Amino acid sequence: MSARGLFISFEGIDGSGKSTQAQLLADHLKATGHDVILTREPGGSPGAEEIRALVLQGDPDRWSAHTEILLFTAARRDHLERTIGPALAAGKIVICDRFADSTRMYQGLSRGDLRQVVDELHNLMIGVEPDLSVLIDMDPTQGLSRALARQTAEERFEDFGEELQHAMRRGFLALAEEFDNRFITIDGSGSIEAVAADVAQAVTERLQV
Ligand code: ADP
Ligand code: TYD
Fold it and tell me: Who is most buried in 28, 139, 194, 203, counting CB within 10 A?
């Protein structure tokens, strides 16, 4: 991936508005003449979408913590090989709804401290970070009620409940400090339009696009 486009990820707790804002940023950048692809994790390629169904549906105890890290990383490797890598090589802007920071948080924090395992597997199998990561920061109570209102079958993680969402919020804020070279943090509590304007301004300033 040397001839490079631009890789932007959205991160944050469930229901924080990532999908909404990723779509709006893609629309904004397309309207200003950029070649953009919008994708998501887990998923974003046919094989990774199949793994998505395995990890997001069913009993919360369906997989051990270690197996789950392998599944998310396998999905990411396929996504990178088939979708993200080729798009970046073609000079496109890739906007991805969640990436490796989600594994650092969800699998790294939710069932004991497995952050080092996540990072080691990431270094071995992925080795790529976004150029820019947009953290949509959100009160977990508000985020969870938004996420549950969607009523999808993909609620394995949402079933973990509000306490986990609080830990995730703290974790994401700490991660944004740890990787302050690539993170921008946006307050997600305003209207969709207000948050979108903040995201567009921050991305434009940071990347001069
Ligand atoms: P995420 O991808 O982070 O889980 P979504 O973008 O899917 O979040 O948003 C979750 C729900 O909340 C959706 O129904 C969406 O329409 C709604 N939503 C998103 N942003 C806002 C906002 N700023 N204010 C009110 N509702 C919002
Ligand atoms: P997503 O579809 O983005 O859910 P939401 O729109 O509710 O934020 O992601 C689904 C779930 O997958 C979400 O609860 C977080 C979880 N997840 C992980 O646990 N690890 C990962 O590496 C990724 C990418 C997602």
Answer: 203
The rounded Å distance from CA 125 to ligand 1 centre is 32
For 6-207, which CATH superfamily applies?
P-loop containing nucleotide triphosphate hydrolases (3.40.50.300)
- Atom from ligand 2 closest to the CA of residue 19: 6
CA 103 centroid distance within chain: 9
107 lines ligand 2 (CB under 6 A): yes
- Count of beta carbons in the 10 Å neighbourhood of residue 26: 20
* Distance between Cα 166 and ligand 2 center (Å): 15
Report the atom number in ligand 2 closest to the C-alpha of 98. 24
How many C-beta neighbours within 10 Å does residue 191 have? 8
* The two structure tokens encoding residue 191: 């209207």
Mean pLDDT by 10 residues, the chain (209 residues): 80 94 98 96 98 93 95 98 98 98 94 95 98 96 78 61 85 97 97 97 87
Residue nearest to atom 7 of ligand 2 (CA): 14
- Report the C-alpha dihedral over residues 44, 50, 54, 57, rounded to 10 degrees: 70
